[in-house]
Amino acid sequence: xxxxxxxLAASILALVAAQPVLSAETIVTxxxxxxxxxxxxxxxxxxxxxxxxxxxxxSRDEIGGIFAAQAAALAEAGIASLRIDxxxxxxxxxxxxxxxxxxxxxEDAEIARTHLASVEGVDPDRVGVIGYSFGAAIAMLxxxxxxxxVTWGQMGDLKGEFVEFLGQEAFDTARSTGNYxxxxxxxxxxxxxxxxxxxxxxxxxxxxxxxDGPFLTVAGAxxxxxxxxxxxxxxxxxxxxxxxxxxxxxxxxxxSDQPEIGAQVVAETTAWLGDNL
Length: 277
Description:
Elements: H1 3-18, E1 25-29, E2 35-39, E3 47-53, H2 66-76, E4 80-84, H3 102-118, E5 122-132, H4 134-141, E6 149-152, H5 158-166, H6 168-177, E7 179-183, E8 188-192, H7 193-201, H8 204-208, E9 215-220, H9 229-235, E10 240-245, H10 259-276
Parallel strand pairs: 3-4, 3-5, 5-6, 6-9, 9-10
Antiparallel strand pairs: 1-2, 2-4, 7-8
């Protein structure tokens, strides 16, 4: 952990626990009914900004409010951000959860990026992205539009990982009946056949290959995401680095008794974006 990140982490521990709402945060409704939270430094935006893309079946504040804590840390560092609910999730409307597809999520990310770039004080050429899990895949598929990319718990093989997660039965059932509904344990989710078609359509490695901006990938040592680090760091052609956090998994310590893990992720990400965006 860098010295700068250690200093940030000390203060961010409180942010993760309290999940504060900054006076500079505003709930915004974008095109297509997408709802997001715009966070601007108290002194106003002054250049860099970050779009934040949540993971599968999640929402814009992310698990344990870790995206909210990240937004607060970025604002403190002078970086604006916009975290959104993809259509079908959270407060966004316009489509049902079942009709979500990768292509629609890419459209949502573009709408968020365009809005953030238009905020007073934001430099449209310095709008980077943080993606968590499936949100990381969306960021990587769209790499040509970002000058810098941070992934937390990245995906590496879209179809392979969804087959492992949901089973081949999900793809077969959706193909034959038009829909697949599954109890994930923390919620029940329904997915129409076009979602599975979009998973099969997109080749994540091919889309990300050649990214020439700064790239940081972060994961817990017990997260299968680390198995993809070597491949994707090799595909990236610009400045690149990875962070493997001991003693944690895909949840980054959010549901454990180790809030310092989430604080470290936030602090390291903030410091890295301050240097690279």
